[in-house]
């Protein structure tokens, strides 16, 4: 079969395995020529390792100077008679292939990070491959659901404003259409469920499990990712349900920091730049901002993708420094270039003019869509998209 891109709304329903391999290689090439991580961690656990920031962190730590071995947890779909499988599935496979070739250990654990089964698998893998201890734990999950413990029910996160409704546009990647919609405010129950799914609770329970199993090495650090954004995005993000969950995550970072101090280590929430990922294109009313931001930052030469963000995080913030630089709320800020006042002034000027008729001209829609296609293994030069790929070949690839 030939694998074609299939997009439904803002969700990719297909992925190209060899394009995913090209994407991994491109990211590896980038970190190899970037400033190197000098005093990085050697044994790293990444929860949410198969795409976006988690995958970029994994690549940076393995190939960008630290020479780390990694255990990556993710929830991905393999090939079946229903479809070719998700991009993250192939990212896991081809990352591991490259890491092994580079002489590093890379273990993929595919399953629900909220479950005890996966926690136990991870602890076992730490025993087997890391001599029982980890030096860094990266928590990079993005999900809409979390099973309630010992129950058949789920908490479901919602992306909604709090207090007042918000009107904004989403861009349907399926047909390049700008769709205006109004989002009603979340109920208290919805906001509380979003905190359960995307707040700090599960990060803390992972760290507790690792402490209890004596898997935390002396000096071990842990980070989780957050977003704050400029004022134009606050109604849908920071002041909405996701923002509440992120505030909860920030608070968790402080309590975890006390626990990690017992091991001479630390915990930090790290505020990243807005980027096109599987998770972020889902956020209503954020896409116009992303289009304007991409245009301005590319023009200024300051645009970064997940991989640039992660390499810069490890070389200039988390490692190689006497002290981790933080803001007044003890957050690591790697969103500094996004929040540059000049950038934001130009972004606001574009947003004021942007509408359904001109968003492709005013914003960087081409770059936005290209990045989305690349996340799923499409649009890579050098990949022969007309090649015939059999399901049998794909099924033989194991994470
Ligand atoms: P992503 O969708 O690219 O990656 C999410 C990862 O979580 C994938 O590896 C996926 O397999 C894994 N995952 C999801 N549910 C799982 C489950 N139940 N069990 C195991 N693994 C599971 O998302 P992205 O954008 O990289 O987000 C990661 C973190 O970064 C999130 O906390 C997000 O809020 C934050 N962030 C994202 C920004 C953006 O613009 N994309 C900006 C700033 C922060």
Automatic annotation (TrEMBL):
Name the pathway: Lipid metabolism; fatty acid biosynthesis
Reactions mediated catalytically = a 2,3-saturated acyl-[ACP] + NAD(+) = a (2E)-enoyl-[ACP] + NADH + H(+); a 2,3-saturated acyl-CoA + NAD(+) = a (2E)-enoyl-CoA + NADH + H(+)
Q: What class of enzyme is it?
A: oxidoreductase
UniProt entry tagged with the keyword NAD: yes
> At which positions is substrate bound?
227
Query: What range(s) does the Trans-2-enoyl-CoA reductase-like NAD(P)H binding domain occupy?
Result: 3-80
Q: Which residues bind NAD(+)?
A: 48-53, 75-76, 112-113, 141-142, 246, 275-277
Active site (record annotation): 237 (proton donor)
Question: What InterPro entries does the entry give?
Answer: Eno_Rdtase_FAD-bd_dom, Enoyl-CoA_Rdtase_cat_dom, FabV-like_NADH_b, NAD(P)-bd_dom_sf, Trans-2-enoyl-CoA_reductase
Q: Where is the Trans-2-enoyl-CoA reductase catalytic domain?
A: 84-319
Q: Quick one: signal sequence residues?
A: none
According to the entry, every stretch annotated as the Enoyl reductase FAD binding domain falls at: 326-389
Q: Which UniProt keywords apply?
A: Fatty acid biosynthesis, Fatty acid metabolism, Lipid biosynthesis, Lipid metabolism, NAD, Oxidoreductase
Site-annotated residues for Plays an important role in discriminating NADH against NADPH? 76
EC number assigned by the record = 1.3.1.9
Per its database record, what is this protein's job?
Involved in the final reduction of the elongation cycle of fatty acid synthesis (FAS II). Catalyzes the reduction of a carbon-carbon double bond in an enoyl moiety that is covalently linked to an acyl carrier protein (ACP).
Member of which family?
A: Belongs to the TER reductase family.
Binding partners and assembly: Monomer.
Q: What is this protein called?
A: Enoyl-[acyl-carrier-protein] reductase [NADH]
Organism annotation: Vibrio hyugaensis
Its organism's taxonomic lineage begins at:
Bacteria, Pseudomonadati, Pseudomonadota, Gammaproteobacteria, Vibrionales
């Amino acid at each position: 079969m030939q694998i074609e891109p299939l997009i439904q709304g803002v969700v990719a329903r297909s992925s190209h395995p060899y394009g995913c391999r090209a994407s991994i290689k491109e990211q590896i090439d980038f970190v190899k020529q970037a400033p190197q991580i000098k005093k990085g961690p050697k044994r790293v656990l990444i929860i949410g390792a198969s795409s976006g920031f988690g995958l970029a962190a994994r690549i940076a730590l393995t190939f960008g100077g630290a020479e780390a071995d990694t255990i990556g947890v993710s929830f991905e779909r393999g090939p079946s008679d229903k479809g070719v499988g998700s991009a993250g599935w192939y990212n896991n496979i081809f990352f591991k292939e490259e890491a092994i070739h580079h002489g590093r250990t890379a273990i993929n654990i595919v399953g629900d990070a909220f479950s005890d089964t996966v926690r136990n698998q991870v602890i076992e893998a730490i025993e087997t491959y890391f001599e029982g201890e980890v030096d860094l734990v990266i928590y990079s999950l993005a999900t809409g659901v979390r099973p309630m413990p010992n129950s058949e029910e789920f908490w479901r996160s919602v992306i909604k404003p709090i207090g007042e409704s918000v009107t904004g546009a989403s861009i349907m990647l399926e047909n390049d259409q700008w769709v205006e919609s109004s989002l009603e405010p979340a109920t208290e129950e919805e906001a509380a469920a979003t905190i359960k799914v995307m707040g700090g609770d599960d990060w803390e329970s992972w760290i507790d499990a690792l402490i209890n199993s004596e898997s935390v090495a002396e000096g071990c650090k842990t980070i989780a990712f957050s977003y704050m954004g400029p004022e134009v995005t606050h109604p849908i993000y920071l002041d909405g349900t996701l923002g509440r969950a992120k505030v909860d995550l920030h608070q968790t970072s402080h309590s975890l920091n006390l626990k990690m101090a017992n091991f001479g280590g630390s915990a930090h929430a790290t505020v990243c730049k807005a980027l096109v990922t599987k998770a972020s294109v889902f956020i209503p009313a954020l896409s116009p901002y992303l289009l304007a931001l991409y245009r301005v930052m590319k023009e200024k030469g300051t645009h970064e993708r997940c991989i640039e963000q992660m390499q810069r995080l490890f070389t200039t913030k988390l490692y190689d420094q006497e002290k981790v630089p933080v803001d007044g709320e003890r957050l690591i800020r790697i969103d500094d270039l996004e929040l540059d006042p000049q950038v934001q002034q130009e972004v606001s000027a574009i947003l004021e003019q942007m509408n359904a008729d001109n968003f492709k001209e005013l914003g960087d829609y081409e770059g936005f869509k290209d990045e989305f296609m690349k996340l799923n293994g499409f649009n890579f030069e050098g990949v022969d998209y007309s090649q015939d790929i059999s399901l049998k070949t794909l099924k033989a690839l194991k994470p």
